[in-house]
Amino acid sequence: MIPEYGTSPGLEHYACMVGVLSRAGHLQEAVEFINRIPLEPNAKVWGALLNGAAVFGDVDLGEFAFSRLFEMEPENTGNYIVMANLYSKSGRWEEAKMVRDKMRGVGLSKIPGCSWIEMNDGLQVFVARDTSNSRSEELYMMMEGLVGLMRGEGYVSEDEMVLELSIEPAL
Question: Is the separation of the CB atoms in 60 and 38 below 8 Å?
């Protein structure tokens, strides 16, 4: 960047590179890259590594990144959720529970998923499992139809697998 654009890379550039390496499965290379960063890695850098570790099921690396993130931003619920889900996917239910308990112990809770759709009659806001929208019944019927079509193509949701296998669900 310096010779081509006359500017030094900032932490956001380094975080992007860690994200690219991590998503490509080059987790060790991402760690080595972090160790060479001339600046102190911030939460975005460690978050990119945690997400990569979660994608590829690397619990040890996830724990390493999560410990750094917990020091930097103990109030970020996303970090707890990613780590708890990583433990859950690895069948490490006690550790997943401990992370969830730690999150609650700090006074945090998971924020429900939310979507916005602009329609002819204005902006519609939908919150996960909320039925207060005037068109909720119609929307849930439509969703059931779409899920039925997906099942016909072989899709099985994580919730269905959890029920079928009687395992503890991820956050």
Answer: no
34 contacts 18 by C-beta, under 8 angstroms: yes
Domain count, the chain: 2
Separate counts of helices (H) and strands (E) for the chain: 9, 2
State pTM to two decimals. 0.67
Given 62, 77, 110, the domain boundary residue is: 110
- Residue carrying structure tokens 């990119």: 48
Residue 168's domain spans which residues? 112-171
- Clarify whether residues 105 and 117 are in a common domain: no
Distance in angstroms (rounded) separating the CA atoms of residues 12 and 97? 32
Task: State both tokens at 41.
Answer: 């890695």
What Å distances lie between residue 8 and 13, 14, 28, 167, 168, CA to CA?
9, 11, 24, 48, 46
Nearest C-alpha neighbor of 100 from the set 169, 40, 167: 169
Q: Are residues 103 and 64 in the same domain?
A: yes
What is the average pLDDT across 39-49? 96
pLDDT at 143: 81
User: What is the Cα–Cα distance from 52 to 62, expressed in whole angstroms?
Assistant: 8
